[in-house]
Amino acid sequence: MVGEYSYCPVEAKHYLKNKVSHCCWSPRTDLIALGSLNGRVSVHRYKLACIWESLPPHQNSVVTCVVWRPDGKCLAVAYDSGHVRLILANDGFVYKEFQYPRSITFLNWTAGLLTKQEGKGSNAPIYFPDLSSLTMFQSDVNFNTSDTFKLSQLLADSEEHFFILTVYCAGVLNFYGSDSFLIARWACKPNLLSTELQFKFLGCQFSACLKYLLILYSWTEETTGRSFMELQWVPTTGLVTFGTQLRNLSMHHSLIRISKTLLDKGFDQICTSWEDMILEMDVKFTNYAKERLSRNKKWSLGVELLEFILFGNCPTSLRKFLVEDWTAPSLKRTGTATLKAYESIKTICFQQLQLILQRLLFHTSELLGNLRDTQSYAKFGVSVKQASRLCGTIGCVLQKSQELHLVIEKSITHLRAFFKWLYVAILGLSGRVLPDDFPRVTPAERELVIDFITNYLQPVFVQGSLQSFSVDLVEQYIRPGEVRKPLEAVSAHSLNEDRSRSHMRTLIHLSEEQLKSGRFPTGLFHYCPKATLADLIMHTLEDDITTLFGPPAAGDFDRACFGFAESVSQLLFCEQLQKSCVFDPAWDFCSQFPAVFTGDSRLRNSPTDSNRQSTYLAWSPSRTELLLTEFPFDLTKTNLHGGRTACLEVDDIPMVPNPNQLAYEIQDLEFFTPELLTLLLRQTTRTSNSETTEEPSSTSHIVMVPVQLLLAACDEGSSSTPVSTACEPLWSSSNCHLPAKRLSELITSAHVESLPCTATKLATNGGRSILFVLFEGSCMCRVYLLDCPETDGSVVRDDGEDGVGDAVMEAGDSDVVENVT
Fold this sequence. Notes:
The chain has 821 residues and is of the alpha+beta class. It is built from 18 helices and 34 strands.
């Protein structure tokens, strides 16, 4: 019979490291994510061996939601601080982070329905090498090789499926495509709530066909004490009709954002490498200059160095500084480190910077080509003009990066000559006799040193106090502000010559007058001589990307995919509860997605069910009854009440003694598969002696409820079941028109597993036949492997690829499956 299992406990933890607040199994593997009350998130294998643990964004953050992406590669984590993190499942790398003003109370990730032909993805891999095959960044501070590899893998991922991330915060639903592209934003409210009562958003779920969104609300009237549950239906046919276009926009947004992140990290590495080059020289000169300025406010390092190189006049303090403080061996090490850092910039950073900029331009150009199909893309609010402007900004950054390359070439020539002169000078001041074949400072190098000291070695004062020395020619490019010295001062080539050599400019032959003409919009060949590379990357490029994709800052927003104005509702529950009771209904959605999203072939839906793609809602308003509703594939606002609904009375459990006839309560529920609903039942045993101070004891049980058997009760009584109106509750204890089935009549003892102590939460993985149970106190848990008994008495497990293992165990054998992938 469906739902009959033997439970094999594979691991029990009596003391977890952190108190667990949320738990969720991966839909494709045997990994479980645990969110804790102290804000830590960890991923474990089914035997609870920890793979990685992630710290919270703030010290006192609490995890409020954990959800996996349908392909099992990533998970989203929400915190009460308003942060949402998107994390790679294999190692815990945070690749995206959102910030909201208030606590996040709901997350959901849904897979869109696209054929492989519709989900081809970008053809960038044809033209660009994989970043992981190139020389990576080398920095232990900001960015490292591993991080670059992870982002490059995200960049190379063509995203064969379209994923929608739903985030609920402070009454507003936000929908993101491909992790970060905002599709819609809506301030939701129950249709049947006429007053200004505070309502509670319970959750939402897209249907399996992706044509409608189901939203659950609850609220309580303080005056009457009545509690309500409402189901709201929002048409989302645009997600199917325009699915290919939305997928393309979302994919390109993701590719552009990841490329921009890599660009930011690459530029940061350029700045870090350059600072490493001049760090020791800066520290040495700054300490010496501060000591001299404390005795003479008019003293100048540049003047003192020029006197030494021009006239050979070396003051005693400078001689002591060069010979004793900055010795010849130390200076040699500084010079060697400087040249190595420069080579790092030249061979690594610029290689990455140019490649990433070219790839960013490629993805933007792909997007621009799509947007010019105005008939298909105009409705989504992404401007062709702004995409063209972004291409122009990227072209400007490419040219400015080439300028910086020439600037550093010039600066390193100055530094090489400067270090050589200092080294020879220190040896001479030390009284050492230089051999005849020792390299001397040539007149050309001497001129370079004078030029460097005069024009480029600049002191930085803050509020009248010396802070550091900077090489002005480079600093004006890698710091915000403006370029004060023209490129002609750095390179022998003029701007016009550099412009004519540009490969992109030779693609389209435009005269200088045409380039300056107002008839030609600011585009690929725009050039801003005073803009710094830092401002272009950190501000201009970022602003252009945000403007291209960014929705309005506030208010409802929709890209022609959601019919929020056409939403309709059904009142599910209306009843007056006891004052001591807190209305906290249990609920869960389940959608029958196509077979590609089902991990276990043995538990896969039948072809008929997959074609129908039904969506199920299980809800328990009073915790003593369970209601199960099936929504058909062709649900519309005209037949919102056309689905099957059945009621299950939780009366008794077969083969479990209950001499005092104590009631069972539904502590938690979750769909194991579309065919099975898992209930966590709790029974509290109260003492008969009213004078005793002993706490009531509780027992917990896991029950598997066959979905189709329960819905069959609806089919039997469908002829006498009236159709409920929108304002008439679908179920209430005093007036229920639904066919009911008792739990004791629906299941057998093989559907039940008694737990050793009181449980509070469960998480199921039907595709892998695994079940996680969290016990009272949030520090104890147990993991079960579920086995289906066969007619011959054996127990067969077939977990498919990437499962917890393949094994056959005889009935009664208590050995644990040890074959773990």
